[in-house]
Each structure stands twice: as C-alpha cells, then as structure tokens.
Amino acid sequence: MDEFTILLADLGLTSTEVSLYLCGLERDGMGVQDFWKKTGIKRPTIYHAMDTLMEKGLVAQKKVGNRTLFSMCPPEQIRFYIARQQDRLRMKEAQLERIIPLLAERRETGTGERFSLVEYQGIEGIKTVFDTAIYCRSKRWDIIAPFQNFLREYEQEYAEYYLRARENNGIVARSLWERGMKERRLTEKEIQLRNPRFMPKSMENRFRSLSIIFDDKVAIISPLEGLSATLITSQEINSMFRALFDGIWDVSEEYR
Q: Of 125, 236, 237, 244, which is least surrounded by CB within 10 A?
C-alpha cells in the first residue's frame, strides 16, 4: 500500500475510492470502461464507488453524447470534504450532550444506589478512563498524583494531549502532589487550573496510583508497569474518597 493510499484512507476514503480517485486525476473525463481497463476494478464496484465519491464531493459526472464521464475534483476539494465531516461530528456531539442526561436518568430509575466497578487493561483502556474523566459533567476534579505516575512515565505526546484536553474542556482541579513535583515551575494559568498543594512528608510514597475524583466516580490509574485502570461509579465511594482528600488537603502545603 503506497503513501497516497494510506493518507487518503486515513481521511475516510475506501481503498476502491482511493484507486479510482488517483486514477481519475491522471486524465480528465473518464468512463467506467476506462477505469476498468486501468484499475481492473469490476464495473458494478466502479459505479457504486463513483456514487459514494459524488456524495463526498470528490467527483463530477457529465454526459458527452451517449457516454457518462467522471472527472475527479481538484485535491483542494478534499479540504471541504473534511470540513463537512467535522461539521457533522459537531452536530453529533451536540445531540450526544442532549441525550446523555436522558439516558443517565433512565439508568438511574432502578432502586438502590447506582454502582459499577470496571477494570480496564492496557494503554488504550487507561486512555479510556482518562477520557471519561476529561469529559465529566461537573468539570471539577480532586486528583492525587504521586511523583511517579502514568502520565510522567508514558510518552510525552500523550501527556501533552491530556493537559490540552483538560484545559479545552474547562476542567478545574484541586491537586495533591508529592514534593518531587516542585521540579517544574507552573505558569499562573496552570496554577489556577490545577490548584496544587504538596502533601505532608508523612504521605510520601504512600500512593502508587494516580486517583481522580469527579462526578459520582473515582478513577484509579496504575503506574505504567501495571497497565490497568479502575473506574468506580458510586456516590457513596466517591463521597468517602472526597472526605479522605479533604482531610489531606487541609494539612497540605500551598504551592508557591
């Protein structure tokens, strides 16, 4: 698979669409017979792919006598195709924001407290738990971060994504850190968003996992060698963790 095929496939084109689009760029106005001779793709498949390419705004159709010819739109048109995808995604996100509270209400209509404990394995599982926290309803976290934690140990690119996503989603936190975190000076904006305090020396090395308390949930992310994360949904457990957090917070040193 060549570079063009990979790049266009990443943008949402099928392998057949990629083959026909690249073929059609070489000559303006080609019929299905021409595409078949050059690519070997079956005629019914070509017709179907031309329909989907027209839906994506990447091919134009015209009649010349009794022939139907297809002309590929300039490569710049791909930019508009991506923009339309982004618009549709934003619309879906808006619909999702409206429907999530309704689904949550339906889930919580049963008797007793809502409770679940889910353990996620591997890097992608850990990222799923982080994303759940990043898109929380309250946009407020209480976070306990030992000096050695998943975000420090994993690749820098993901740590930067995590910090950007937190900021973009307006997450404001109270952060409890070990004193090793003093190594980097924060900007005023970072201090406002992360609101850090240093735990007492007696708490050093007492926490192995990074914990995030939010909504009615507690996320516990193991160090990198553990490759797991646990997401607990329980108002009672959330309240217990928050009470423990408040107790440590009151005796912790403000960031200076």
A: 236
